[in-house]
Each structure stands twice: as structure tokens, then as C-alpha cells.
Amino acid sequence: MQLSNQLLFFFSALGAFNGILLGIYFIVYARPKKIANYFLGVLLLSLSIRIGKSIFYYFNPELAKIYLQIGLSACFLIGPSLFFYVKSMLNNGATKIYWGYHFTPILLLIILMGILYPYETYPRPWQTYIFKIIYLQWLLYIIATGYILRHTFYSFLKNTRKSIDIWIISIYIGNILIWVAYNTTSYTSYIAGALSFSFIIYLFLLLTFFYRKKQSVITRSPSIKYADKKINNKEASILLEKLACLMTEEQLYKDANLKLPEVAKKLHIIPHKLSQLINDNAEKSFSSYINEYRIKEATHLLEHQPKLTIEAIGYECGFNSKSTFYATFKKITGMTPASFRKNLAP
Q1: How much is the average pLDDT of 64-69?
Q2: Residue 228 has pLDDT above 50, yes or no
Q3: Can you give the residue ranges of the HTH araC/xylS-type domain (predicted)?
Q4: Is 1 exposed, middle or buried (0-12, 13-18, 19+ CB in 10 A)?
Q5: Tell me: the pLDDT tens digits for 270-292?
Q6: Which long-range contacts (CB under 8 A, 24 or more apart) does 267-275 make?
Q7: Interatomic CA distance for residues 63 and 54, integer angstroms
Q8: From-to residues of CATH 1.20.1070 in the chain
Q9: Which residues of the chain form CATH 1.10.10.60?
Q10: Fold held by 3-219
Q11: What is the pLDDT of residues 155-165, one digit of tens each?
Q12: N or C: which end of the chain has fewer CB within 10 A?
């Protein structure tokens, strides 16, 4: 193999190898254990298997057909893994997302096709129809993911982005680039997808480093300083009043990606102290505290803005999805937004 081909193989294979390691890390070792990590792990493993197939086939066109089938079949899992990873991240893993309804039929389809129409016996259907179906399915999930990311993109463009927004958007755009690379091979090169993936993997690693670093800065030593100190009632009363004013005047709860450290910064206290204040003195979690303001605003809009759809009201009040809004509204008020609006009718 010539030196140029050796380098090409090295750089393209490096991304696939690291992708597999990252996928295993997020599925097995990543902490805390949350469903988003599993989706990200499956996404990376699926992409890596697909990329690995491309690399070996490019350098060895006589590669056994079973490997081609495995590589193409892995593509079926890329789209849904991306969609549910983004959805679970936006919902902070709190909502029920019926991923089983998507993954189960896809896995059954992969198994059935492998048994009934193996690539080795039926190469033509795979090269003509199945190949197109795979990439169409992937594209549809990309479009669906873009739809649930629309508010995140809006925040990004309005310069109110958070580090988590950049993280999610980067993964989404990287997925688009790989899809485009594979669907333009007639104009570029078959190995372009693998090289694109290697580039994106290292960009992903860089983002991971900065994201983790930022998270550690937020959660480190100040909490230890106040671990044994309880906020006295007088100070707690003043802080709670300031917090209520902040929520009412600046309407921070309307930010769907609002985080406790951001509120603490506005109150000029450390995150741990704000967490302690809400938990000990308000006797609720941060998310419950914020959601109460969101639902209060929602009831006001439901009453005074009859032309607004329920979904629009949910987004206006700071919820990332219709399902989260419905679940939270019912938990706090005991009824659905639709029932609440219906009861308002004269």
C-alpha cells in the first residue's frame, strides 16, 4: 500500500475506532446514568460500524458481503438514536419518550431482512431499494430532530445560547454532514463519509473536554464550603423575596434551558446556596420551583389568550415539548391544559 493510501486509511479508521470506544464509554461507564447517554452511545456505535464498513470496503472491494450488510443495517439505528438523544437532552430525561415503539420494529426489520434477504444472496435489492430506504429513514429522523430543535436554534441565533445548546447543535450538524457526505459520493469520493466522521469525532472530543470542564467549574469546591451551614430564617426570607422578584420581573422561567447556576449568578450567590435555599426553605426542587411559575403563566395565557394554541402556550412559558407541558400542568393543577381551558368557557 502506498504511503498516501496508508495515511488515508489511518485517518479514516481512527475516527471509527475512537467512535466505538466513545460509544462503549457512554453506554457502560458514563456517569450519571441517564437515558441520554445510552442514546448517544448507540448513535456513536451505529455511525462507527457504518464508517468502518466503508473504510474496509474502500480498501478491499472483495470484502465479504456479510460485513456490508452489517454496516448498512447499522444505518437504521443512526436516525432514531439522534432523535431520542436530542429529545431526552431537551427534556432533561424527565419525560416519558416512547423510544421502544421506534427501535423495536427497526430491530425486527434488520433481523428479518438479514434472514430473508441477506446481502450475499440478494445484492441487487440492497444496492437499489434497501439502500435508498435506509438513507431516507435517516433523513426523516434528521428532519424530525431539526423540528424539536427549532427553539434551541432560535435561542442560539438570538445569542441567548447555553453551552448545552452548542453541544447538541454540534452533534446534530455533524450528523447532517455525514449524511450529506454519503449521499454525494457520486460527486466526491466514497471515503469522504469516513473522513468527515473522523473530523467530527475529534471536534466532538474537543467539545466534550470544554463541556465537562465547564460543568466541573460549576459544581466544584464552593458547595463544600457551605456543606455544614444552614441559611438562617431572616436571610432565607430576604433571598426568597429577591428570587420571587427576579422571577416575576425578568420572567427567567420562560427560558426553556434555564439552569440553577444562572439564577444563582443573578442573585449573587453560589449555586449550592441557592439549591439549599430552595430545598430547605421553599421545600421543593429547583425544577418544581421554576415549573410553578411556568404553569402560573400558562393558566394566565389560557384564560386571556384564547387564540393561542396549547402547544404555543407551553413553549411560550418555557417548556421544551408539548408532552412535558401537559404532564407538568396536570401534576400541578390536577387537570390537562385543554380541560382547564374548557372549564373557563362561559
Answers
A1: 89
A2: no
A3: 242-343
A4: exposed
A5: 988 899 899 888 888 999 999 99
A6: 267/239, 267/242, 267/243, 269/239, 270/222, 270/223, 270/225, 270/226, 271/218, 271/219, 271/222, 271/223, 272/222, 272/223, 272/226, 272/227, 273/226, 273/231, 274/243
A7: 10
A8: 3-219
A9: 223-344
A10: Rhopdopsin 7-helix transmembrane proteins (1.20.1070)
A11: 777 665 555 66
A12: C
Cell of 268: 449573587
**Continuous segment of H or E residues that includes residue 63:** none
Q: Using the 8-state DSSP alphabet, how is residue 158 labeled?
A: T
On whether the pTM is more than 0.70, the answer is no
CA dist., res. 116 & res. 107, Å (int): 14
Neighbours of 331 (CB within 10 A): 11
Residue 151: what pLDDT?
81
Topology of domain 223-344, CATH: Arc Repressor Mutant, subunit A (1.10.10)
The segment with the largest mean pLDDT, out of 9-18, 120-129, 192-201, 205-214, is: 120-129
